[in-house]
Amino acid sequence: MKSVVLFIGPAGSGKTSLTAAFGKWLWSRMVTPAAYVNLDPGVEYLPYRPDIDIRQYVTVEEVMKKYGLGPNGALIKSIEIACKYLDDILERASKLPAPYVLVDTPGQMELFLFREFGPRFVEKFKKAGHIIGVVILDPTLMRKAQDIVSLKLLSLLTSLRLGVDVIPVINKADAVEEGEILRDDERLRLELSRESEGVIGEISERILDLLNDYRLATRVPLVSATTGKGLEELYDMLHEIFCACGDLT
Ligand code: GTP
């Protein structure tokens, strides 16, 4: 069984950079060889060499020309076209020699989550390996306690939509002060009680309780694709889940 990691997040959150940095980290530590899959038909430059690249099947540029669409419409159309090639992609992925497969998903998160492509990709890939999603957000969206609750909810939503375990991650750690991000549960709750009054505050508290009850309130690694900070913590968390499922020893 392969260990498959999907890097998912809003545009510009750092999916491509983190895919490259995490792969490089795995190789440099000789932890395990990693293969790369690019699922973004619109990307122009990749800082890693993909073993499988969706652009071999379809590109946004070609679709814009062929169908006379703008960039957003062409991205949606490209993803629809890509669905036809999923079996071929899966067959090639299962033959990759690396035990770790890192998947860089399309620029816009909603294209992967709320269209047919993402769930179908995951369903097919479950035959080849155990999949974990890494949901990435930018620290500029993480200034308030409510933002952390939103990240946890977004991870839960991703988990529900794709049917996989998900680790929420904050990228671009090099661009913030460590203490700025509320990662400690006790501090988070204290800040929430200060920040949010009334119904919103109560809902947030209950969301945190619910996630805790079901052991879904995973810690949130603060990572940097630029400096490599936090990648070991992310690896440990992934390893824990893969091991718990018997994929790794
Ligand atoms: P799209 O697929 O184009 O939506 O973007 P993405 O989510 O793949 O993000 P990408 O890796 O292209 O990074 C977006 C921008 O964030 C680039 O300018 C990166 O250089 C920058 N970036 C990514 N990771 C980091 C990081 O850890 N620190 C800093 N400071 N910038 C980063």
UniProtKB/TrEMBL annotation:
Gene3D superfamilies xref list: P-loop containing nucleotide triphosphate hydrolases
Similarity section: Belongs to the GPN-loop GTPase family.
SMART domains referenced in this protein's UniProt entry, alphabetically: AAA (SM00382)
Record's keyword annotation contains Nucleus: no
Keyword tags: GTP-binding, Hydrolase, Nucleotide-binding
Protein name: ATP/GTP-binding protein
InterPro entries cross-referenced by the UniProt entry: AAA+_ATPase, Gpn, P-loop_NTPase
Organism: Infirmifilum lucidum
GO molecular function: GTP binding; GTPase activity
Domain of life per record: Archaea
Pfam family, one: ATP_bind_1
Residue intervals of the AAA+ ATPase domain: 1-194
